[in-house]
Amino acid sequence: MLTTLFRIAWRNLGRNRRRTGLTLAAIAVAQLAVLAADGFVNGYVDAMVDALAGPMLGHVQVHAPQWRDERAMDLVIEDAEAVLSVVRAHQGVIRASGRIYGPALAAKGQDGHMVVVLGLESRREAEDNGLLAHVPARLLPKQQNVLVGSGLARKEDLEVGDELAIIGQAADGSMANELVTIVGLISSNVDLVNRSGVVTELGAAQEMFVMPDQVHEIVAYGHGAGQASSMARSLRTEPALKLLDVADWGQIVPQFVSMLEMTEVSTLVLVLLVFLTAAAGVANTMLMSTYERQRELGMLLALGIAPGRIVTIIAMEAVLLGVIGVLLGTLAGYGLFLAVPAEGLDMTRLAGESMSDLAYEGLNYAVVIFPRIAPRTVAAGFAAVLATSLLASLWPAVIASRLQPAEAMRS
Predict the structure, then answer these.
(1) What residues contact 109, with CB distance under 8 A and at least 6 apart?
(2) For the CA atoms of the chain, what is the radius of gyration?
(3) Most exposed residue of 150, 229, 243, 311, measured as fewest CB within 10 angstroms of its CB?
């Protein structure tokens, strides 16, 4: 019986093809608009997450308690090599390295300027997503050879081959001083590196700041930023990390996570608004179709068809309209993003040169995005159109179920 009712509903949609086509187009455009907006937002968010959880933050960070708040030189991770070994051996961790951050004065001549000495494990930081990922192997810092941020070099007129006198405070309270030679300039999307960074090998920084087997930070990378939270929870169970602060990138920049949550809410609001509009189209189509077919419906009722089956036919028509429309919109959405070039979309060309200044949390972001349709958005579209189609069919269905056969056949 349901098959028969389905065939009747399908046939009825073809009676007024123009009206049906317009309704299908409205729903398809609504779904396309939702997928297009969500796809571009997802691509933009992916670019920001890759930058945030990339060279500077990593996926998980380990510090001494209170270091993230105070950043004091003496808040260090003791037995750094042992702790690093535990982190590197942990399941899910692909790479981990230690870092030292030492505020200091640097002078080429008589005038000094504020810098941050970054002690890094250069070999590990030269890997993908590391702070030195694009630095040639021959220029990696070692001993008293350092790299200087390109912004700092421009501001202080520093060149390769210059010697810098570094003066700061060591972790034990004594004076830290060193004479270093600039062997290269480094450009990074991290402002700290570009504008004030003097990058040296971790061992040299430990010696300079009297930090034997100590670091300020351990940065760990896993299988993507999405796994960072579970990786951090797992690392906290390690005995060697029990007394340390283990945080995923989302805990380090909670305001950014809040912003991501707001984008999800805005997408939901967009889905609701768009499909409420589409529901009006479905309701109009079904209402007009019901009035046009009063004689036919009256005849069916006179032949003994139960009113409930009339309601089922009208509901099937509405659902068919909605599902076909959203399917067409989904196919159009995927087709739209398949047309995106393999190298992504350069937002500078679309929005102007001002996009090149995009920055957040001390990071400059790439303006090339790769739009991505989230399966949950497609599912939300289907769910929304199914619900709105059923709701839109209620009024016409109620009218049809209350028809008096004799009166309807005379209309």
Answers:
(1) none
(2) 32
(3) 243
pLDDT above 70 coverage of the chain, percent: 76
- Distance of alpha carbon 401 from alpha carbon 382, whole angstroms: 27
d(CA 217, CA 337): 40
Cβ neighbours, 10 Å, residue 350: 11
369, amino acid identity: I
Residue 210 near residue 178 (C-beta atoms within 8 A):
no
Per-residue pLDDT of 191-213, as tens digits, reads 888 888 999 999 999 999 999 99
Give yes or no for a contact between 150 and 194, defined as CB atoms under 8 angstroms apart.
yes
Strands 197-201 and 145-149, by their bridges, are antiparallel
DSSP-assigned states of every residue in 4-24: HHHHHHHHHHTTTHHHHHHHH
Give the predicted TM-score (pTM) of the model. 0.71
Sign, CA dihedral 273-276-281-284, equals negative
C-alpha distances (whole Å) from 172 to each of 86, 211, 243 are 26, 8, 21
What letter would DSSP give residue 354? Answer: G
| Tally of CB atoms within 10 A around 169 | 17
Buried b (16+ CB within 10 A) or exposed e, 198-208: bbbbbebbbbb
Q: What is the DSSP letter of 343?
A: T
Which strand (E) or helix (H) includes residue 276?
helix 254-292
Tell me, what DSSP letter sits at residue 153? H
Cα–Cα distance between 129 and 263 in angstroms, integer?
A: 26
Candidates 325, 282, 315; CA nearest to 398 is 315
The SS3 assignment for 296 reads helix
Domain range annotation of the chain? 2-53+256-410, 60-252
Q: How far apart are CA 53 and CA 55, in angstroms?
A: 7
Rounded Cα distance between 41 and 51, Å, is 15
Cα dihedral angle (376, 370, 224, 66), rounded to 10 degrees? -100
Lowest mean pLDDT among 79-88, 160-169, 210-219, 330-339: 330-339
- CA quadruple 345, 350, 353, 354: dihedral sign: negative
Q: Which of 209, 132, 208 is nearest to 170 (CA)?
A: 209
Torsion sign across C-alpha atoms 196, 202, 208, 209: positive
DSSP string, 182-198: EEEEE--SBHHHHHHEE
The angle formed by the CA atoms of residues 263, 264 and 267, to the nearest 5 degrees, is 85
| Spatial CA neighbour of 194 closest among 126, 148, 137, 127 | 148
